[in-house]
Amino acid sequence: MTFPGVGRVAADAAVTVRELRKNYGGFEALRGVSFDIAAGETFALLGPNGAGKSTTIEILEGYRDRSGGTASVLGVDPHHGGLDWKARIGIVLQSGAESGDVSVREQLSHFARLYPRPRDVDEVIAAVGLTDKAKTRIKNLSGGQRRRVDVALGVIGRPQLLFLDEPTTGFDPEARRDFWELIRGLKKEGTTILLTTHYLDEAAQLADRVAVIAQGRLIDIGDVDTIGGAEARVPIVRWRDTDGQPRTERTEAPATVVARLAAEQGGEPRDLEVIRPSLEDIYLELVHQAGETDTRTGAAETPNPTNPVAPANPAGDES
Prior knowledge:
This protein is of the alpha/beta class. Among the domains are: 1-88 and 191-228 and 279-301, Rossmann fold, CATH 3.40.50.300; 235-276. Helix content is 28%, strand content 24%. The chain is built from nine helices and twelve strands. The strands form three sheets. A six-stranded mixed beta sheet has the order 5-6-7-3-8-9, with helices on both faces. Strand 10 and strand 11 form a beta hairpin. It is globular, with a radius of gyration of 22 Å.
């Protein structure tokens, strides 16, 4: 059986989702979402707030029951994932709740002991740019620095699959770039990564493939360089005509259009721009076409009720 919109399917898929559904009373948060994530792939799940991203992620993490469909994460139904399975995944949620009265190194050392093959604590601290803060109590860190602790906790267990939910919120531009290098390093090691982010440049930099979800449905999926189709990547020429009116033309030959306009107007047109659509442009167009601008009743997703500090704690309660 085939599912429209799934995209290419890897024989060794780390994540397989088929017709995933979730209802909250009469509200359908997910309406038959299907996709695969290949082992070692970095996969970005994009969509507006309330589109169904967080619900999808929480089901795959084993935190939320599904109403229908199937899901497999590292070969296990996440609803029944045990301690061994939890030890193979790492999670960085949108916000953390670290113990504020311990230092960064103490917190990471504690969590490292919960995993069978953890990363070196000091190497992880350095990778997230907190070497100078290793002995600082977490409660004394800035918001951005606490976010780096969240990331460190997510990777300390050397996960096979890493969930990154808005990982660079609160990072300054330099810290974001450093984080990107960390993720690229994890990818080289073979880590499978599922990323959600509102920074479309981040998705473009890190992801192999992108899926866009809106109104609980998967509306497009594909390689970063091909999603949206060829037409969505046609350059756009914008200018103002001699009457001052804004004009737009999509063309595969923008230089030809610019030359024509210059000849017609006796010089370079006013406010001339040649725009090659970015992933952000394509994403916004896809969401607009899906009608996501219409308000959905109950569109806000239910927050994760679990403790975000230790979402993949292999020594924790399985309930």
